[in-house]
Specification:
single chain, 254 residues, alpha+beta, 4-stranded antiparallel beta sheet, 9 helices, 4 strands
Length: 254
Amino acid sequence: MENQAHDRAPTAHAFSDAARSAVYETIFSRRDVRGQFLPQAVPEEVLARVLLAAHHAPSVGFMQPWNFLVVRDREVKQRVRTLFDQAHQEAATLFPAEKQDFYSKLKLEGIVESPINLCITCDRKRTGPVVIGRTHIPTMDLYSSVCAVQNLWLAARAEGLGVGWVSIFNEAALQDALGMPRDIVPIAYLCIGYVSHFHEKPELEKAGWLPRLPVADLLYYDSWGRADPEHADALTATVARLQEDIQTRGQFPR
């Protein structure tokens, strides 16, 4: 009996085919939404579910360093939008001359249009100065908060909600606009709401700002820059085939 149980172990905990397919579809159809927000309200039950999903993200030392600042007030949104406009104008001058006009025409936020804005933060002092897993890489708490962002984003996509991450801000100015202490780090300012549609491809890819990199070109094996050990060709070819299925035929892994 023990041998039979051992034989089943590798796949015993896999999701059903339908559930696994839904996970992959959520990941590959997630988009950074800027301009398609609808005015209808997000039900409290739906918002509660995606917040709970965010709260169940992994965190170093189980410190759960995040807070969730929900913004619905139009005046607060407009204050944040003004900060974005200022930073957006500054950012345009940082790109090469041939890209500045392109950058200026991109729609990069939906702060006022989205029914809900949400700032996910990181309290770096939450469980004290010594944290399991952060003793040698002190930024692990910041990465943990980013995991909460990703959890929320995927849960929101499964709920039919669009999410847009706005990061073009002066950090201190954003803290002041939200009444946030200086030692609390604003990780992500998100615009959330139902949308008219989701783009087939990320907007920056669709607009021609940058292409999707081939995963096969990003694979190394056993040491940096090594791309040709035993079995590497088979894995590289499989990854390339799956990426082609997604990009050209919209077929998600199943």
